[in-house]
Amino acid sequence: MLCENCNKKPATVHLTKILNEKKAEHHLCEQCATQQEGVYFDTSYSINNFLTGLLDSIQDSPIKIDYIQTTKCDKCGMNYGKFKQLARLGCSQCYNAFQEKLGPLVKRIQGNEIHVGKIPRKAGGAILTKKEIKSLKVRLDEAIRKEDFEHAVLLRDEIRELESKLGD
Amino acid sequence: MTAMTKWINEVGPQNDIIISSRIRLARNIRDYPFPIALIKSKSKEIIKEVSDSVISGCEILKNEFLLQEMEFLNPLDRQVLMEKHLISPNLISNADKAAVMMNGDESISIMINEEDHIRIQCLLPGLQLDEAWSMADKVDDLLEERISYAFDEQLGYLTSCLTNVGTGIRASVMVHLPALTMTGYINRILQAANQIGLAVRGIYGEGTEFAGNVFQISNQLTLGRSELDIIGNLKDVSRQIIQKERDARATLIENSKLQLEDKVCRSYGILANARILTSQEAMKLLSDVRLGIDMGIINGIKCKNLNQIMIMTQPAFLQKLANKALSTNERDTRRASLVREKLGSE
Ligand SMILES: [Zn+2]
Ligand SMILES: [Zn+2]
Q: How confident is the model at residue A11 (pLDDT cuts 50, 70, 90)?
């Protein structure tokens, strides 16, 4: 495949841009891709890039520049390109914003994906409460299905109480 | 100035090989951006929130902890804190937003707005990883009474860098391994440590040179293992390294007693008489003398605690003692006279 911009060099960079829910694919040579306005293209290999550079090597899929460009943390404004540069996340919300990419990266760096160890009492309590709410909701559905409304009301109240506790 | 620092002045278990044990916990507050994305006014809110929770959380700690905001501390004092291993270089480069809280014997330092909002550090002499963990754990609980941590069910404690996520723990020991270095086994030991997920780096000196034969060994992974596993692993390795160093010391005595004594006593001779000492040379010679004292080759000198000399001969510390800025040459002269005085006969 030739670069759609210059039609001379082979296309090595494949972009998928999603704009207004419309998907557009672009196939460019490296040179044209770098010249594209606003396209982040990492050419340096500084130590800071090392950790995040790992990421590109684990994925065989073509480099998805659009991800770097468009994925941004709503809370702190950090985008994925900036994270790649700094190798530091901007806030705890970044973990959700970049979830798709961070998953494999965490696995690669840490060799694990699930925390084992200390759970803070406050945040930890909330985790336990959430689990309880989940299981109560399952029981509530069951009660409704069986038309056991008396029981369902009790379960609903219990869920409400736990949820208000979480809200504090 | 080192008088109150516990790890420098007191003796701990296995102190002839393990100089100190450290536990560091990385924590962040849920609703603030991490320090890298933090504006100054917000950073002050965090300093207040953390110090309030230390001070109001516990009557005993109230009077024991001192808050120091980095921007109000002069650069020399910041440097001294770093040379005493109480704060990190990163805290200094964030000086306009950062602070530290320390207790009386400086065994606990809480760094605020380092790479993460909170870095709890407990530092004790000798091999005391469990003790340091138990202290850090308590401080952590205390802070959590008022602070809501950024914590994820799957990933654990959320940190700015992915190398700390999960437990946020960095456990480390500072070890003095002269005999393993002299006998050439050190590289094999360091490689083995590396292979089981421990990081090893030199403490003093630049680049690949391990000046003073002092190394820091720490866990690299923080996710998917409990704090106790991580600490247990490091403790096991520390014990094995202690044994190997003891073996190497015994081998040296057995095979080359005279050469060892000669080396140690020459180094002592230079330290006790030199008029000019670079930092690099001092570290190297102090390592020999420390070994000599530990092995009973050198007796009867005034200062048995070489940790003090090790810290007091650092650049900022010398300037603090002199109460003025010193050029490199002046420092080398002052360093030599300080060492002469400390290593003089009883
Ligand atoms: Zn092209
Ligand atoms: Zn963010």
A: confident
Q: How many domains does chain B have?
A: 1
Q: What single letter denotes the amino acid at residue A56?
A: D
Q: Chunked in runs of 10, what are the mean pLDDT values of chain B (346 residues)?
A: 80 92 97 94 95 79 85 94 92 95 94 97 96 95 92 94 96 95 87 86 58 89 95 94 95 94 95 93 93 90 80 92 94 95 76
Cβ contact (<8 Å) for A119 and B151? Answer: yes
pLDDT in tens, A131-163: 788 889 999 999 999 988 889 999 999 999 888
pLDDT over 50 at A39, yes or no: no
Task: Give the ipTM.
Answer: 0.86
The β-bridge relationship of strands B151-152 and B118-125 is: unpaired
Task: Identify the three-state secondary structure at position B271.
Answer: helix
The helix/strand/coil state of B243 is: helix
* Residue at B224 is within a domain: no
Residues 77-96 of A with CB under 8 A from B: 77-78, 86-92, 95
Please answer whether residues B179 and B169 qualify as being in contact, where contact means their C-beta atoms are separated by less than 8 angstroms.
Answer: no
CB A11 within 8 A of CB A29: yes
Domain assignment present for B267? yes
Q: Which of B324, B341, B321 is nearest to B3 (CA)?
A: B321
The answer to whether the CB atoms of A106 and B165 lie below 8 A apart is yes
Using alpha carbons only, how large is chain B's radius of gyration in Å? 21
Instruction: Please give the residue range of the domain that contains residue B329.
Output: 256-344
Tokens of B254: 């057995």
Mutate to test the interface with B, among A48, A110, A122, A134 (most CBs of B within 10 A): A110
Domain ranges, ordered by start, for chain A: 1-41, 47-110, 124-167
